[in-house]
């Protein structure tokens, strides 16, 4: 009988070595591109006080309502596995008094946790790569941040994606809009989908996100949020779009893009692939000028995004073919004397940065050489009693099936030849 605990938990996955190379590739590319713009990596804890997320993400959002992994620890504290990183980074920013430096640019990569129905591109433990640019009201910050998402996705060979962008204004603008939106939608209440009917009272802006065809039809004639923006928000949005034009980044303005977290204001954006399912959003982000103040810090504007890495990988794995680096050298030994002597050779291979595998099977030389071949090694170093007694070493060039024996000292002198 298979034990249930031998399965990974629903919605979680092992990432095996053949996949890890993709994750390492993403990490390396992100680190290179982002450090060029002077972004520094930050790592915050995976567990935080439940209150941190409740107070920032918003009581009526899906994340807080139904997706949090929350438990009570031995000291009766409510703890949550982070569903996203922005709240944690804002907390770290305030907590470590990082506001003493005027501008902070951070990036992160790590696991996030949401209790959702697992589907392709939707897991309970998933990974986000994200950036946060903290300390600037300038629309240039929005443009730089969006440019970085675009550049990274481009360099990671994501094909055919579209940037959608909107401005949701500030709190007062949204309040006025909300009142008018609800007034309009109440006229059609019975025709709205059930979720949207509930949201009329809890979070009416999220109705704009509804995938229901009938609801969308009703929304076509609803008041438009952009008509409620004041001069500052309108100007900000106009400039962000202008900078994107100057960067040659194509985008589509989507007046219904509101995003699922409460802390956003002004700019919101998503990068989507053309796939038809509900998991086609690869990157989501926006501006959040009030979050840090709300957590007890000084008024500090910020803008950022997060990319879902499982979704990204699903889209790029066909374009981006990576192979694990093969070993150059396989080390075959036999007998105690050889196994005592081999360590000096290992030290020299390390010094020369030559990738190798040490055979640990204690099988016959032919079997060890067979494995060297299977692993795609270029050379097999052979050290047995005979070599030890004659103070020499045998090297086999695997693709030519040729081997030669040279004095030990010469072998060491010429060890860097095993690189090629
Ligand atoms: P969705 O509408 O698809 O649930 P979201 O708005 O909840 O997405 P965000 O909170 O904006 O997602 O997170 C940013 C990105 O993280 C998403 O665009 C997506 O790529 C990824 N993401 C979010 N939730 C999951 C999940 N459960 N599994 C895998 N990736 C996820
Ligand atoms: Mg979600």
From TrEMBL:
Protein localization: Plastid, Chloroplast
EC code(s) of this entry: 6.1.1.21
Which SUPFAM superfamilies does this one have?
Answer: Class II aaRS ABD-related, Class II aaRS and biotin synthetases
Q: What is the catalytic activity of this protein?
A: tRNA(His) + L-histidine + ATP = L-histidyl-tRNA(His) + AMP + diphosphate + H(+)
Instruction: Tell me which GO cellular component terms the UniProt record holds.
Output: chloroplast
**Family that this chain belongs to:** Belongs to the class-II aminoacyl-tRNA synthetase family.
Q: What is this protein called?
A: Histidine--tRNA ligase, chloroplastic
Organism of derivation: Gracilaria salicornia
